Every structure is written in structure tokens, then in C-alpha cells.
Amino acid sequence: MNKLLLISLTFTLMVTAACQKTRDAAFASNEEQSLYSVSQYNGTMFDIQTGEIIMTTQAPENASEQEEQVKIDLEGGAFTQVSYKVSSPIAEKLLNGVSIFGRPNFKYQGVIKVTEKAVTVYKISKAEDVPAAEATYAVKEGEMLLIPLVELPVDGVVNVERKKNEMGEVTSTKVLKDEKSLAQAEFFKMDITKAKNFTAVAKADLLPVTYFAGEWYFAETTILPEGAPQEDLGLKPIKTDIARVKFAVGGDTMRAVDSKMDMTSKDKSEWNLATTMILDIERKAFKVDAFAEKEDTEMKLRSRPFVKVEFASARTINSPESIKLVSVDVAKDHFSFVMEDKSNITRPRIRYSFLRVKKDAPVLAVRGGEQVEKKEQTEQETTEAVQATSDASSPALTATAETQAQ
């Protein structure tokens, strides 16, 4: 009898202990799959190590229609799409192979920022190490620029609590408690499949208005066809005298005027006399909306910081009646474009060349492959330098142009 009582008592104690044992806390559903730790993500820094250049073979949308050759490169090819690796598995998952542009074989930094509305992954860089096209939408933070790469919507900021039963007792079931601010929350909710890459406006054919600041050397040169019977066809080569001009950028036109022109003058006749060339332009501005860069059509026309120059519209006192744009070459300190005279049977071409004047730079000449500082610059050397800005086929002249532009 005593033995049976002992067995029964032992069994009762075992059952009671089993009933009183606390279960491992868990959610009633799979809510934990969309939960992420605020401290683990917000402010996380990582390295972005770029690799080789990724060659893009995609042709422009209007490639079949565009006959002229246009090359605009103010950065000397320093920036391009590159391969990369990141030091953070979390960042790698969020980036999901998004395209990155920058210097090849260069180390950038990155950061993840979390708010009540979104998780955003940025590339961090000094201004000189990012393409100018990215600077238009970058977030400035001190001396650094934050370039947005990827954004994911946050569905709420929460804390995790234990659910209570009808008797007010804490159960093993986890529940979420919504919080109003990120500072109060330990977790945030995010659907990683809803990542959105930042969309930027293509600016390959745009130039900043500031590019045209200062004074420029200008030359207009007729390029006669080889073997053309000049005396019989009445061709008159334009003398390549060098002029010094500056640009007046308006709302829809841009004028190259004599460098001595008073830019505050309101005398139309004075402007007409001083004008060397007129070009049609389209001014542009941009803004960021819904994690995308868009054109800002509300900004005042003359305040818009970019211009699209219609080089085919160039008008000078010597412009032929019928012309066609052949090529455009724009670099950091010089630009040129070539027009074809369709009104002449031999189709001669006219080259318009501009070279930035750098007042503080010494005048240099090339002698025997070496740069030699000079006190004066001859008219002929200046002419060659300006012409060389668009003559890549002449190494000697190109070298002269490069020394003048330094």
C-alpha cells in the first residue's frame, strides 16, 4: 500500500512540474521573418571595394538617327560603372547587385540608415571621388557626400512583448507592440523583396552652367577638302585669328562675346557688336522625389544649373546658309565642334574651337619632348593650341594644347 502511494505521489509531482514548466517564447505566426534589429542595421558602416571597369555595350536609343559624333567628358574617363565587393553581409544582401559608378580599384565607404519610413543604403565619398552626375542628388553630410543606392520601405517600428491571458498572466506567446519613433523601438519591419534602386536622370549631353565661366580663346577655321580646286570653287579659308571671349548664358540662348564686353550693359547694339557666336540652349534642373531624380520644371529658367547646348544651332557672322553638325568634343578645359557646309559642292567643314584661359598658369612650350616655361606666348602658338583642342590626329599640336591647358 505504501509503495503504491509513493508511486502515485511521484507521478503527480512529475505531471505538476511538467505543467508548470515555461514554454519557449514564440510568435503565433511567422512574424519574426520580417523583423530586423534596429541596432544591427541603423548606422552600420562598411567598405565598398571597387574592381575593374564594367564595359557597357548598350547603344543610345537614338543611335540610328544620330549621325554626328558627340563626345562629352569633363572628368577624363575617371568614373565609370565598376565591379565591387562589400565588407558587410547585411549590406550585400540589401544591395543585391545594384550598379555602382566610381573610380575603378578604389575603396569607398557605405552606410545603412534606418528611419520610421525606410531603410536606405548609401555610398559615402568626397566630392572629388564621385561622378558629377551623382553630385546633383547626393545628400551632403559635413564634407562628405552620401549617394543613395537602394531603399526599402519600413512597415513599422516595434518592440516584442509577451502576451497576457485573461487572468493577466504572462504567456509564452510573443506579440508586437507598435512604437511611434525609432528611438523607442528595438526592431523594425521590412519586406526585403521590395527593394528599390535609386533612379537618376541621364546627363550625358548636359553641361553645368559654371563650365562656361571665365574667359576663353576662340578660333574659327575652315577645313578645306584634300585636293579641292579652291580657286575654281571660290573657297575662301577663314583666317584663324584668335579672339578672347566670355559667355553670357541666358534662358534659351548662349552668346560668346568679346571678353571686354560689359556684361551688365542693356544696350542691344553693343551686345550685337560684341557677339562672336550665338547658340541655342535648353536649361535644366533636377530634384529628388520618391527615391528618383526627376527634372524640376518649376525652378526659374535662369536659375537652372545645367544646359543642353544645341551645337547645330551655332550662328556666327561667317556661318554658311546650310550647315550640318559633324562632331562635338567637350573636355574639362576645351571644347570644339565641326560643321559641314552643305551649300558648297565640296562640302568644306568649319571647326569652332574654344580653349579656357588660365591667367595664373605659366605659358609652356614643348621643345624636344620637354615642357619649357616661357615669359611670352606667340600668336602662332596660341592659334595652334586652340586648333589642337579638336585635332587628336596631330600629336604635336595636341601636346601643345595640353601644356597650354594645364
Describe the structure.
- Strand 10 and strand 11 (170-179) form a beta hairpin.
- Helices cover 16% and strands 41% of the residues.
- Helix 7 packs across helix 8 (395-405).
- The chain is elongated, with a radius of gyration of 34 Å.
- The chain folds into 2 domains: 34-56 and 65-197, no CATH class; 207-405, no CATH class.
- Strands 1, 2, 3, 5, 6, 7, 8, 9, 10, 11, 12 and 13 form a 12-stranded mixed sheet that branches. A 10-stranded mixed sheet has the order 4-22-23-24-15-16-17-18-21-14. Strands 19-20 form a two-stranded antiparallel ribbon.
- The chain has 406 residues and is an alpha+beta fold.
- The chain starts with a helix and ends with a helix.
Number of DSSP strand runs: 26
Instruction: Determine the mean pLDDT.
Output: 79
Note the main sheet. 12 strands, mixed
Shape: elongated
Q: Give unreliable regions as ranges.
A: 15-22, 57-66, 361-377, 390-406
Share of residues in strands: 35-45%
List the quaternary state of the chains: single chain
Content-based structural category? alpha+beta
Count of structural domains: 2
Number of DSSP helical runs: 8
End-to-end distance, in Å?
110 Å
Rg result: 34 Å
Q: Please bin the fraction of helical residues.
A: 10-25%
